[in-house]
From TrEMBL:
<dbReference type="InterPro" id="IPR011006">
    <property type="entry name" value="CheY-like_superfamily"/>
</dbReference>
<keyword id="KW-0805">Transcription regulation</keyword>
<feature type="domain" description="HTH luxR-type">
    <location>
        <begin position="144"/>
        <end position="209"/>
    </location>
</feature>
<dbReference type="InterPro" id="IPR001789">
    <property type="entry name" value="Sig_transdc_resp-reg_receiver"/>
</dbReference>
<keyword id="KW-0238">DNA-binding</keyword>
<dbReference type="InterPro" id="IPR016032">
    <property type="entry name" value="Sig_transdc_resp-reg_C-effctor"/>
</dbReference>
<dbReference type="Pfam" id="PF00196">
    <property type="entry name" value="GerE"/>
</dbReference>
<protein>
    <submittedName>
        <fullName>LuxR C-terminal-related transcriptional regulator</fullName>
    </submittedName>
</protein>
<dbReference type="Pfam" id="PF00072">
    <property type="entry name" value="Response_reg"/>
</dbReference>
<dbReference type="InterPro" id="IPR000792">
    <property type="entry name" value="Tscrpt_reg_LuxR_C"/>
</dbReference>
<feature type="domain" description="Response regulatory">
    <location>
        <begin position="1"/>
        <end position="115"/>
    </location>
</feature>
<keyword id="KW-0804">Transcription</keyword>
Amino acid sequence: MVVDDHRLLAEALASALKLRGHRVLAAAAPAAGAAELVITRAPEVCLLGTATPAEPGVFDPVVRIKRERPQVAVLVLGPVPSPRGIAAAFAAGASGYVRHDERIEGVERAIMKARAGEAAVAPQLLQGAFSELLNPAAQPDDEGQRLLQMLTPREVEVLVRVADGEDTRLIAAGMGIAPSTARTHVQRVLMKLGVGSRLEAAALAARTGLLDRAGPLDNARPPGADPAPQ
């Protein structure tokens, strides 16, 4: 069975496989309904196309197929994947991963391996995946993460409180520190972020997602507890 979001691709691949002597039970689209169809028809092998192998939940149909029809071998057809994409496919229960631009002979070899219970992944695909894992490409600059790394945990808490609209007195009370110490923390935060006011600091933190990364405040300090070390 061949399933892909693009019906033309599914039907073209199905026709090519028929010409090579394979019995194709169905060529279907979209891939979202793959699980139900495969469970009903129970083919030996399902070729499941996806354009986004690293997207969360994309392999949920594979999980369901393997749970209800464990004898069905699922081969994922997709773009040149990231290591995460290959790992996600196999973690879901796929028997192999075949690139969309593979020749029909390569697809056929993968089908034979899957039917024999072997993992069907081209060696060069695994080599590329391991190469990326060992030498990861530089990620785009994440301003929120960069700013967060500039601040100490205490300064992050101060920034979160500033963003919540707390003044120096409330910050000091909430953190169990002297107002003068709270004022010093605020000034350091403004200096490190390169802004001139608390309002600017709060706006920058919100825009870069820094507040989401900081997590919730721990407001469980019991009354009369010793102030935390500065």
